[in-house]
Amino acid sequence: MCALQVIRSLLVSLAHEEAYYSLFNDFISHHPSVLEEDGFSFLKHCMALLSFDNKRAWFKKKLSKLRYQNICRHFADSVLQLTLFGGTR
Fold first, then answer.
1. 3-class DSSP state for residue 57?
2. What is the distance between the alpha carbons of residues 78 and 76, in angstroms, rounded to a whole number?
3. pTM across the whole model
4. CA angle 67, 68, 69 (to 5 degrees)
């Protein structure tokens, strides 16, 4: 069993304790960037530890980032078309 699996099983077992679950989710709600950091990326694989509110906030952040990337890509494509074709097709 690798260290990551040991940590994961420990966190899952502790999540069944209400005090730990509440403390953990309060920490995540105040520091949501923890879910994005490389050192804590394993938490993405332990979504059972997160409360619904934390999952929803994480999902909204990811969706917002995807929308922003899509808007930027669309804008860049539009600028490229205007540059190459002079606005006419």
1. helix
2. 5
3. 0.56
4. 90
